[in-house]
Amino acid sequence: MQAEYLHQFLDHVAGNGLVLSPEKRATLQVSLEIVKRNYKFSRVYFWGKIMGLTADYFVVQGVQADELRDRKSLYSLNCIDWKLLPPATDEMIEKSMRVKGRFMGDPSHEYDTKTIKNSDEDVVSLELKVKEEERLTATIEQINREAAIIPRGAFIKTPLEQIHKNRSFEGLSVTEAGKLQSYLHFTEPSTLKKKSLLLQANLEESIDFLNSVDDDEMKVFWSLQYERGSKLVILRNLLWLGFTFFHVPETSQYGCVYLGLGERNIDFPFMI
Length: 272
What we know:
single chain; alpha+beta; eight-stranded mixed beta sheet; two-stranded antiparallel sheet; 5 helices; about 30% strand; globular
């Protein structure tokens, strides 16, 4: 969620138990302005918090020219001192997925993981070490790929292939806000999934450049609810418990935040 509206937007998701103390809110409000200036970001977003055993990781993301491709992640243990995270690679994500259990809260902590590979009919057991900082950036990337969403029309792709906020976006109607097809995955798709014939006539190239949540096989992980007498729409991701998206229909207010343990909900099949 956008840093300038942190106090207001956090209140929209407070009903899900996602809250920060007044001290942390005040510290973040000042600290994120400094981050924006020091790193020359055009906009800063509070991404969320991953809770560790000894300390919590507060995560923010800054953007520059392109809202989607120019995102950088930073983390802090005290909401004052911020460190830039390296981009997550597929190899880093693959290694981090082998780590089980809670985050420790120590960026330098190393996990020992084992992997078994077949090499010329011989079984080889390899021991890999994964730093918690690597696991942190990999987890952030996984959550972004699988859970980060935006309302349809909130962003546009320019003729120069850059992605910017749509300044003319005035929000979804109350009816449209209650449909999964009105929300798009905010991650660059490797392939744009086919839309239904009914929707193809209404597609616009400048705003329909992302995959719809409704076209995703993972849409079963989303829970959509109206709150405050249809004046607020909340989408909760049941794969990453603690990830919540909100939108105030007929306004440009929307955002998402993650406050959780940084672990996939492997018990989901037993919850349905």
